[in-house]
Amino acid sequence: MNKNSQKTSDNKRDPSKSPLLEVSGLKTWFDLKRGIFSRRTDTIRAVDGVSFSIMKNETLGLVGESGCGKTTLGRTLLGLETATAGEVFFCKEPLLKLSRGRMNRMRKSLQVVFQDPLSSLNPRMNIMDIVTEGLVQFKMLEGSREQHARKLLGEVGLDADMIYRFPHEFSGGQRQRINIARAVSMRPDLIICDEAVSALDVSVQAQVINLLLGLQERHHLSYLFISHDLSVVSNIADRIAVMYLGRIVESANAADIIEDPLHPYTKMLIAAIPVAGEKKTARKIIKGETPSLASPSSGCRFYPRCPEAAEICRRRPPPEIRQNGRFICCHLYGGFPE
What topology does CATH give the domain 18-109+186-333? Predict the structure, then answer.
């Protein structure tokens, strides 16, 4: 199932409606400390001024190379990392300013599916206890745990008789379905999927993507789908945001990103997608090493690796351009003023 092929006019964002999640100027920096006295020697700018929004029943795909800050962004939204600056509104609540108690209550509306299916599951708990743990904690359980567990496993395509088994008895794909069942059990508004299919075989990835799409339609879910694989993201996302060294460099509808990429980094990510029958050596790769987040370029952060770079790219930060629902951060589309 390809989400892009299902788009209709009523899937478009309604500007009259408030976003479910709105992120503005979010920064998450980490101090590097060394020596006996733990003096700060540098700052890692993992997330450095990121803004985006997600509507109800919408999927935003966040894509970029490993180390670009995607996971840190997701962990900051979950309250697992402390934001340095910026604002985050979720269900109109200022997420970064909530007390610990209020944030804990908010977690039933904001769930997560992590990358490693096995490490996300308590090996000492059986599946019934795992998928109903949140329901018990938030006093949402109506009826027996067994009834709820059987229903949840059925929703994610697993045999209901498996509820008394333990995580080590399942394959990687089955474990990730269990993680998804646990997240969906709370009937959340938003699920953050952090590399949720990257550890799975290609055939299993497709099955899990179809499962997520089906659950989204059934329960009106929204997803922030974080991945390094643009080909996977294109099959589930309504919109795609491309992230490089802590910043979003381009965002647009998924079809526009795939069919008409603008930023040189986006073009290179698409060119690097494997094509059946094509030799690996024929594909373009992104040359050079990713610069350190502790010392990004004073101009465009992609400048050292960009095949279309000009001198202005080295000296000045690129302009941020918003037009026709697209966002692009690149000198190529803002002129080269001296």
Answer: Rossmann fold (3.40.50)
Contacts of residue 210, Cβ cutoff 8 Å, sequence gap at least 6? 1
327 — alpha (psi -120 to 50), left (phi > 0) or beta? beta
In the chain, what are the domain boundaries? 18-109+186-333
What pLDDT is stored for residue 274 in this prediction? Answer: 77
pLDDT higher than 50, residue 46: yes
Residues facing residue 243 across a β-bridge: 248
Residue 284 pairs with which residues in a beta bridge?
none
Both tokens of residue 81? Answer: 């990392």
Mean pLDDT of 101-112: 90
SS3 per-residue string spanning the chain: CCHHHHCCHHHCCCCCCCCCEEEEEEEEEEEEEECCCCEEEEEEEEEEEEEEEECCCCEEEEECCCCCCHHHHHHHHCCCCCCCEEEEEECCEEHHHCCHHHHHHHCCCEEEECCCCCCCCCCCCCHHHHHHHHHHHCCCCCCCHHHHHHHHHHHCCCCHHHHHCCHHHCCHHHHHHHHHHHHHHCCCCEEEEECCCCCCCHHHHHHHHHHHHHHHHHHCCEEEEEECCHHHHCCCCCEEEEEECCEEEEEEEHHHHHHCCCCHHHHHHHHCCCCCCCCHHHCCCCCCCCCCCCCCCCCCCCHHHCCCCCHHHHHCCCCEEEECCEEEECHHHCCCCC
Which residues lie across from 44 on neighbouring strands?
A: 30
Q: Please report where in the chains the tokens 């465009």 appear, as a residue.
A: 300
For residues 46 and 221, give the distance between their C-alpha atoms in angstroms, rounded to a whole number: 28
- Nearest-angstrom CA–CA distance, 93 and 95: 6
Q: What does the pLDDT average to over 178-195? A: 96
- Give residue-wise pLDDT tens across range 243-265: 999 999 999 999 999 999 999 99
Residue 318 Cα distances to 53, 200, 249, 261, angstroms = 22, 37, 9, 17
Amino acid at 285: I
